[in-house]
Design goal:
The chain is an alpha/beta fold. Helices cover about 45% and strands about 15% of the residues. Strands 1-3-2-4-5-6-7 form a seven-stranded mixed sheet, with helices on both faces. Helix 3 links the parallel strand 4 and strand 5. The protein starts with a strand and ends with a helix.
């Protein structure tokens, strides 16, 4: 695993986790606007040349936790996760809690928190393998018009161009085993328990046109009834953050300085 670390270590600490098949750099449009924070951004295993395969939700979170310990960080002001990064973020929180490291807030955008059947996971492995294989041979214009991506982003797919550019770069390094493990990570979620206080400090954000909202929102709300929820109309998977980055980052910063 590789890590980018930005900012002054005396500033509040934010850990930012990407979604499936994305390197840490795809979050640059967010962390570049957080100058007053100490931001730690991992690039998962399997997402760069020479890396070992992506492991598991627990394995990736463990490497992040160990890295934070090496930096002597004992207080995280926010765990931020996009898509699959939300699930890794939840596991990271569990491990940090057990290690005695304080976490103030969590913010999850487009969290695909669901447990799919083995048959459906096989279908998703096939679908993702096909997508990644196609990315290896596509120009950016061709990638932007892939039907698969339109299912996630809705009619606002152009908003995701920075992330898609990163995916085109990473695609050659993603092995069949990494894809398989990411599908398992993404679609075998077990809804770990959060106490009432942490629920009140956890935020879930969805666009009403994204599939994660349509399939997972009710499950997440049932599991974490005291968490904070916002659904943005007319938006797909993470498109709001790309179209309104200044407002989005201000919201994150307002949460970090808030108390419940």
């Amino acid at each position: 695993m590789k890590f980018n670390v930005m900012g002054n270590e005396e500033n509040p600490v934010v850990v930012m986790l990407t979604g499936s098949f994305c390197p840490g750099e795809c979050l640059e449009y967010i962390y570049s606007r957080m100058e007053n924070y100490y931001v730690v951004v991992p690039t998962y295993n399997g997402h760069y040349e020479g890396a070992k395969d992506f492991t598991t939700r627990e394995g990736e979170a463990k490497e992040i936790r160990e890295y934070l310990s090496k930096l002597h960080i004992d207080h995280i002001h926010m765990i931020y996760g996009q898509s699959m990064g939300s699930e890794i973020g939840m596991e990271l929180y569990r491990q940090l809690l057990n290690a005695g490291i304080k976490v103030d807030h969590m913010f999850f955008d487009g969290a695909p928190m669901i447990r799919l059947s083995p048959i459906y996971k096989r279908f998703m492995r096939f679908k993702f393998r096909t997508m990644i294989r196609m990315f290896r041979d596509k120009t950016m214009d061709e990638a932007m018009n892939m039907r698969f991506l339109k299912q996630f982003a809705g009619r606002r797919i152009k908003s995701l161009k920075p992330m898609i550019e990163s995916l085109v770069v990473v695609a050659p390094y993603l092995s069949v085993n990494s894809i398989k493990n990411e599908v398992e990570c993404c679609y075998t979620f077990d809804f770990p328990e959060l106490d009432d206080e942490m629920q009140k400090n956890t935020y879930f954000f969805y666009g009403d046109e994204e599939k994660a909202y349509q399939t997972c929102y009710n499950l997440v709300q049932k599991a974490y009834p005291n968490a904070n929820y916002r659904v943005e109309k007319g938006h797909g998977h993470m498109t709001y953050s790309c179209e309104e980055p200044d407002k989005y980052v201000q919201w994150l910063q307002d949460i970090i300085v808030s108390t419940n």
